[in-house]
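Worked problem 6 (solution included).
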Amino acid sequence: MLSENEKYNNFVHEFSNILYNLKVDIPFSDYIFLCVGSDKIIGDSYGPLVGEKLKNSFKNMYHNIKIYGTLEDPISAVNLEKTVEDIDKKYQHPCIIAIDSALSFSNKIGSIFVSDTKMQFGKGAGKKMIQVGDISIKGVVAKDYKIPRYNFSGLQNTRLGDVIKLADITSSGIYDVIKYR
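Solution. The predicted structure is:
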């Protein structure tokens, strides 16, 4: 099992490599952090927790960094598509970084996965939702039982302290990578 320091270092390494190696013809106009989840379900609160921490870290620092999805104003299945439509209308060429909790094998709980692919939202809950993002960040908060009602129960019974630790690692890692870009 990796220490928090090792998780942080791995995350920063992966995120910075993917961010700086994105192949684009036009430079990004803005960096949009789309932090998805609900504050009503502990395991699903990873996204809004990261969003809240990023909002506080980047407050008044960078005009081209936007945070969507916080504890105060969460982005969930209810408003995800509308939010993405609004982002598409408002920004010309943003880099969208999608952040959400994930389910996986028991030995992967506490891991953070970064990818240069779109995020498929709602899979663990058995929902087919839109795919979004130039970069996806998934924090594994519970075991994937492959059965939606068991997964929902697992998300409800996730330890808040574990989700907060993951959100701390993710948000501080993002901040450290972005401030040196």
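Discussion: The mean pLDDT is 90.
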